Amino acid sequence: MTKTLLVCLIVLMLTGCASNVVTDHDSGVVFGNYDSWDFAPSKKEGGEYVSLDGSRIRSAIERELGLKAMGQLTAETADLLVDWRIETEARLERRGAGFGFGFGSGNFGWGIAAPPPIEQVNEGKLVIELVDSQTKRVVWRAASRRYLNEDQSSETRRELIDKIVADMFKEYPPGV
Questions:
Q1: Would the pTM count as exceeding 0.90?
Q2: Interhelix angle 52-67/154-169, nearest 10 degrees
Q3: Taking a C-beta distance cutoff of 8 angstroms, is the pair 75, 44 a contact?
């Protein structure tokens, strides 16, 4: 009993230490050369509408890049263009419990079981890419492992987006 409890606690601790953000970058880029940014043109006001979550994401990105001492300029003069999107991912989730029964004794018996119902759940994953404005190549990318759900409140969504974006930009610039 004690060993089982100890193993469960260790697994929970290791799960809590797992990173919620995955980043990648172009190792040939000198990130110290970038000191200005703007949102990629397709995400700017005027061309397309900005959703509620889009406004939350934009505010969080503006805050985090401001903390990195990077200035926001126009897309034509900025060193980096920020492109972000929410990618929809489907995953299977167990709902409820299965059913089973059996009978027998010793090493022999009969039984029948039904697996728990499984439901497909669609969730959104935030991806942020920094694009060199001259070469039009992605130089840095971060993707969250936390998901936004439709049933979250506005405040919960804002707090989660702020936390996700802050976690993403902890890894920027790479190697620092």
A1: no
A2: 30
A3: yes
